[in-house]
Amino acid sequence: xxxxxxxxxxxxxxxxxxxxxxxxxxxxxxxxxxxxxxxxxxxxxxxxxxxxxxxxxxxxxxx
Length: 63
What we know:
Layout lengths: L2 H14 L8 H14 L9 H9 L7
Helix pairs in contact: 2-3
């Protein structure tokens, strides 16, 4: 799976969670840690959790 496919999959999983499970940055962080274990990303300067946090934080707290 390439980075774009992983990004889409992670965002879909995040948005599929109930609204109350994706309200805070702490919830986002714990989800990113678990998602990093499920999805492999190409090597980069940032670790996978940081990359996923970048994808998810703009969507945190959104309906």
